[in-house]
Amino acid sequence: MKKIAFLLLSITSFAGCSSSDQETPTSIPTTTMYYPPLAGDAWETKSITDLHWHEEAVQPLYDYLELKHAKGFILLIDGKIVLEKYFNGHTASAAWYWASAGKTLTLTVVGIAQDENLLDIDNKVSDYIGPGWTSAPTAKENLISCRNLLTMTSGLDDALGDNVAPANLQYKADAGTRWAYHNVYVKLQDVIATASGQTWNDYFNHKLRDRIGMTGLWYLTGDNSVYYSTTRSMARFGLLALNKGKWNNDQIVSADYFNNATATSQSINQSYGYLWWLNGKNSFHLPQSQLEFPGSIIPSGPADMFMALGKNDQKIYVVPSKKMVVIRMGEAADAETMALSDFDNVLWQKINALYQ
After folding, report:
1. Residue 302 belongs to a domain with what CATH number?
2. Which of 99, 191, 221, 258 could form a disulfide linkage to 245, CB 3.0–4.6 angstroms apart?
3. Quick one: what percent of the chain has pLDDT higher than 90?
């Protein structure tokens, strides 16, 4: 988890300008949203030619992705595949880890459980998993709501590592007064299990995964639960996010909850929702830092883009204004110099070249 700090530090050198300063791409004409069948490999495509995009910009994009250790890349417009490419020995049927991009799966399932009146995100965490789940004084622990875990404002000490045993969850500040990226969000999976009376895996599979045709599984690694799936399964979830929690005619999670999840969720870090990162804001914070940086997280990216960002450059980019979803899975783009990487910014320059 800590290594995501390197992921986001890679873009601080571009923080001085906002994506609102970028030239707004010409709007893309859209048609009815497409959803692939729940089973099988069928997935409709949309051609570069039909979109009137620049064919000559495709190969430079692929070359950059391959150079930067990508394994899978998908770009959707209106739910249809415009670009799909696999690199470095990876295939469409091979699974890869989501890392912290998988946090967005957890927040979605929390919303489903709230829609079913199994929980309320404004209730304290100890209402569901009992007191003593931290080593904070009882009065301070009782300040921590499920919403605080969704927004990274638990007030617990983020400098103590990813271990979420009570002894390692120590009081730092009152909940809601401090933003700090912390693995404690994973306790929401315990909240779900208790509130639903099911295992986390069973509830997740039944309420989310199977309803949008995803494949994959959760793998427990140390103190974190990491999701593995194909690139197309990640794209399915991105399509659900693009459509505010709706899959075809099935509203998987309420649109109101999803709108809240993809808007600034607290007053400290403008660029953070409910476990989603938000582009195009006036400032942002980074993990393991209390500093505020001016500008947009990815200056070359669309201002309305929201993002799931994971260790080693696992990416879900969702751009509502373009009806676009972009997926990147793979190894770290810059394994040797991650802290100095400009990967996200250059990647979006090359994506923009497709249609600007």
Report:
1. 3.40.710.10
2. 258
3. 85
